[in-house]
């Protein structure tokens, strides 16, 4: 665990340079009419959950190149998130993936979470792989399977996942369902019946979990199936949620769209319907690439946050609070570094979105002043908000440069020494 | 106008060869348990409307290369569709495009339609271009426009379009709305407000047209706007229809999808919801290419028809009757030839879909016998149904080879002589 | 091993029905001027190699659902291909993947190949995964790596792979290089230097393998890297081959293209340059989906064969003989069934391409008679060639219905009994 | 024409704010080791040509919504570019489009150019439309046409275009060929012959224009043809240039790529080959959308400039000087405003690319320090370079805020008064 002293040591050497930049930026923002304290407060308060599966080196079907020192247990995963949170003060929660993250000693896990100032924010079921002790295979589907006993097994698994989550703390009230069900060949699926079976299964899960829990329903156009996915697009996810209940909500994963999709418009649509439940952040150039968030299309990420900020600020929008999560894989980067970069990119996009002069923007939109509207949005994006994000991290007790801290302190080397060169994260 | 004698002359020379093939195929189909008469009856009965705008040479923003002899008036457009229908007996109706197809003499037009055994099946509004006498411009939108007076103008236009259609015959009870509204740049649109304004406009149109009319709402991801379209996907279209009324239905245009979309699944989805109102057939490799139907992805066209046939045959599906229309542009082909090819491709796909052994397919699907299910579907596709489609045309009084008839009789040459080398179809 | 008697038993029950269809089709083809014997001969002679890695159940990064009975050794892989070849008489060769398929007893392997009437046609290197005993990791590339010692290791591996192949028979004169090298993030690669290093490595391999060997250089736009691949497109592959030598040739994998690519045009281009060396067949809807060949876009497959047949028949084209290979993964189908379907689809496309009336086609092309040219191509595609493909298989001693044979004889069940339910194919 | 006094008036009110920002940024850049004067000099010197066709309101095949005041002649187009250049001091040249921009009085045009401190930098031929007086139609192609007389007409046109350019000044030594030739349907083109005819035509043009001229060969995957384009990708363009001559070079248009293409890698590739001749800048979300440059993917634009700057700075790269041009259409924006925004986006990307610490980057690349390499690139992108671009404009005599100047001085209103509300730019 990283001590406050270490953080302060790190910061002290960087403070002068930071203050210089921050003084200039904060003056500039105040001139533009922003409340600098309010900005810092909002950005510091923005927390993004880290999924337990993102702490090991991921890979592709072609191979995996682990860097070593991966967390071998739930406890070590918590330690890694604790490390990240100590550095950036922005990752105070974890998304668990069941069956891998089932705690052996619930009380001890809760203590460990407390020690790291972390909570479990949500739990994720897994019906896209077969576990050793499993009675029925999910090869041909889970919630959409033609056989009722397979569906029941998948429904029960989801309900059990929620139970495990509930035991880990009152903050955990979200079940995320990524349904990998689909078909690889024309003719394989009866589309209408498969949809109806999926809906029935979702209703059964919804009825089986606590009444104050939210069910997040993810969509994805392809992979692991390459002809059809049972929930390929937001429209399908939305229609399922409509029929399931108020606390059934759509989850948007940035990598789960066909080429050229305008994702920010989907975000606006779902908020307008009050059905945007959460986000999986990652970066994407081709498909579900699971790259570092913001590494490929930072402007798109900003435009998405622009919609989110406007939607959250608009009293006419009756969307529930959102679950913010990272969902990425790490093939060539250290997972901790990748997560630190992702959080930085998310906060950068959020900070820039907060700078948009929405009043002037709405006026330009009403008047169809296209150039003006675009320039307003663009001005926020062009602003260098690194000092603002750093200041908010500083005030929250984090490190001015988390990446540098991680590297300079040889943390990966120490993790390898402790856990071994060939430690493999559970679930990978 | 083509006489029955001409058709019979044409057919007589081809009959022997046709009969030989048909005898073989019909024997084969009967062995497989099909009722050949029923197949012929269904295929002969399948009618696809021709849109009035498809009778001239289209083009792209880069240029237009007309072949000459284009119809200069509604009357000449009717004559062209009459010609097509006389040859293929499958295009007994026309989709009108207002303002270009406003009849000067309604009674005369109705007589002309009767003479050609045609009806008007639907009317299409146009709010994506400015007309000379128009008070407000649609440059920044029509049904979604920020100014109420512009929206009102667009709503009134739609209602008037329905009135014009209603006057032309009792068969016309469908208003097709393709809404080109959208934005070209980030910031230009307030997505949520633009959606809400569009919904209000659609409701006003719905309330303003006769109670037994259907409103078809088309979606399209891009073009003519290149950042966002107000109705980019089926999910948006569906949500608008849900809130507008039972007779608001989604129209699927085959070219209006992002790359790699599984369109057949969308078709199944919408039929399952009872919200598939109609089809715009065309061929597409990249986007809204508006090529000849089936010219690029004939297997996809067949798979779509497979869903349509299954949906229409399933008593559990409560989808209304669909409006079948071609919507294509003709850059390098004679428009009449292109339309004849399109109808042939549509009927081929329909005929093959009728051959699918659905009982065996559903069994294989239930049992997750993937290879078997695929082979059943594929067997229907591999069948050479050209004799079946020809036989159904023959029995309906059409030509055995409409394309050959058109070419051999020098019809385009005669149209050019009659209408001129540089005649330009109204609306182009 | 399957005996001729078993094949004849199988065929005898199906012969009457087949002959009936074949009589009709062959008469029809003769009427059209085709030499039926020539067609049968060509189709029977067309052989497609099976890659050793395609005999197990593949999967995605999300999981794998093996059906059991997978080949546990090179010998069992040969047995599986032998089985396929016995049934379809079209898969007389195997592509090996080193390091997994290194024979322990070369003489014994050669005897086994002889017994199954098989040859090794090509060998594939693997520098996209780290092997246990490997000195340097390929995490950051192999042939493009910044460190010369890593490149040397990868070069040496490729040369050794060719040596292994050469020992297995004189027919093996092809080294296939799929280079997974690439980068996941902007800034990671110095594009120009990485290209130059790759070129140098290719030259070294080319110089290190026997002088009569062909080097096939594959391209792929993404996966396993998601920002850039060192050889993303045919242009890069072609430029590398140009600089490497005459026997460096481009390999086209059908799944390795960006959305909407016109692959048949690339095929024509490369043949025109004399640089098309080989093919990896598979089916694709979204990316490198590795589905059954022809399962998604059969018309495209046919159009590709149309170019291949025209190129092979044209004396002006100085392209070498091509290496035909399947490269697919099998997630939800039995691998053997999948391969049988793939070969059937390939032969179907080839047979249809042979039916194209090229003389008339070229005339129509010269005269810009677009409709006529398209109808000529389409007529070949619409023809039901299943009896033709079956007849060519029959005459070659294969089964009339390989899939049915495989299923009815419970072959998978027997493989599971022999090899075990959880046998995993080496290399997976 | 805008006077220096007007510019100075405009600047004086903004100078204090600008100086404040610039002082801060220049100090920061100096701390990082940059020569601020050198940066300003380079950015000020970067000039982007405006194409004559971009001065009117473009549109799509669905319609056009002109704002009025469009230039009705070459002289008025020069005036518009002169206005842009007076404001941004970065657009000192024009790309002409023949046949529309043929000067009636060459000497007068040259005087006018001089008065505006402008030159003609390149000329563009047009063989994608038929002109009234044209003997042969380009409906079925121009340089690739099957008939030699059509090809000759197109070749002669290209040569004549170069002659017209040569007469307008010694700076004009570039002929840009965008070849719209292609096919809409399978079977239409004989791919290999069409390629060979195209190559012959290019060679004839190359031989027919002055020996010191450069021929730029553009590629585009689709539109206006939707099955195949004769030059669909950089590989085809490159192969044609290789066979044509040293001064045949590839032109990259940012909108001419399939979805998800890594354009920056293509840029690096072509520079490495010494074959990157020029650029058409525009913005793109779906295809050849021709939006404002940088409006959709500013990070990609920066990454492209990163490759350009590295390539131009590397003595090992023997690429000729590049032709920088904007090629956009303006559907919903004022063309002049759109062009001002595009130039600003280009200069922003260029300025940021100049800030990349290439020495550190190359070190990180060599060491495969992925995170570090990415952070170096990203740091440059995150920098707010607006003061730097403004300062370079200021020092060159331009306006601090060209867009504001254009709006506040009511220039469009004055152009409408002068040229009329319905003036249509020649060529649209």
UniProtKB/TrEMBL annotation, chains A, B, C, D:
<protein>
    <submittedName>
        <fullName>L-rhamnose catabolism isomerase</fullName>
    </submittedName>
</protein>
<dbReference type="GO" id="GO:0016853">
    <property type="term" value="F:isomerase activity"/>
</dbReference>
<keyword id="KW-0464">Manganese</keyword>
<dbReference type="InterPro" id="IPR036237">
    <property type="entry name" value="Xyl_isomerase-like_sf"/>
</dbReference>
<keyword id="KW-0413">Isomerase</keyword>
<dbReference type="InterPro" id="IPR050337">
    <property type="entry name" value="L-rhamnose_isomerase"/>
</dbReference>
<keyword id="KW-0479">Metal-binding</keyword>
């Amino acid at each position: 665990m990283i001590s406050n002293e270490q953080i302060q040591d790190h910061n002290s050497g960087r403070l002068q340079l930071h203050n210089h930049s921050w003084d200039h930026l904060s003056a500039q923002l105040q001139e533009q009419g922003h409340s600098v304290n309010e900005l810092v407060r909002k950005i510091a308060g923005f927390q993004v959950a880290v999924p337990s599966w993102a702490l090991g080196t991921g890979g592709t079907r072609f191979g995996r190149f682990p860097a070593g020192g991966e967390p071998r247990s739930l406890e070590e995963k918590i330690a890694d998130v604790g490390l990240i949170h100590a550095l950036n003060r922005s990752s105070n929660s974890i998304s668990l993936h069941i069956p891998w993250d089932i705690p052996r000693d619930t009380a001890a896990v809760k203590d460990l979470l407390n020690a790291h100032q972390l909570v479990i924010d949500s739990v994720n079921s897994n019906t896209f792989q077969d576990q050793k002790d499993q009675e029925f295979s999910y090869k041909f589907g889970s919630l959409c399977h033609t056989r009722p006993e397979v569906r029941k097994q998948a429904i029960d698994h989801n309900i059990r996942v929620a139970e495990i989550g509930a035991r880990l703390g009152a903050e955990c009230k979200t079940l995320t369902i990524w349904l990998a069900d689909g078909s690889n060949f024309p003719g394989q699926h009866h589309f209408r019946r498969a949809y109806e079976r999926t809906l029935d299964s979702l209703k059964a899960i919804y009825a089986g979990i606590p009444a104050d829990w939210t069910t997040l329903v993810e969509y994805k156009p392809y992979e692991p199936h390459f002809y059809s996915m049972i929930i390929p697009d937001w429209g399908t996810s939305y229609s399922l949620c409509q029929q399931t209940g108020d606390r059934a909500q759509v989850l948007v994963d940035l990598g789960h769209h066909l080429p050229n999709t305008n994702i920010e418009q989907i975000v606006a649509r779902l908020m307008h319907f009050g059905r945007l439940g959460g986000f999986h952040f990652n970066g994407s150039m081709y498909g579900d690439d699971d790259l570092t968030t913001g590494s490929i299309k930072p402007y798109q990420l900003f435009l998405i946050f622009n919609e989110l900020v406007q939607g959250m600020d608009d009293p006419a929008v009756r969307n529930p609070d959102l679950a913010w999560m990272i969902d990425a894989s790490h093939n060539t980067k250290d997972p901790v570094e990748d997560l630190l970069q992702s959080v930085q990119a998310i906060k950068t996009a959020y900070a820039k979105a907060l700078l948009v002069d929405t009043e002037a923007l709405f006026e330009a939109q009403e008047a169809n002043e296209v150039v003006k509207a675009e320039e307003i949005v663009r001005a926020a994006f062009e602003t260098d908000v690194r000092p603002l994000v750093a200041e908010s991290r500083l005030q929250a007790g984090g490190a001015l440069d988390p990446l540098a801290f991680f590297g300079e302190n040889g943390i990966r080397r120490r993790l390898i020494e402790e856990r071994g060169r060939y430690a493999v994260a559970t679930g990978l």
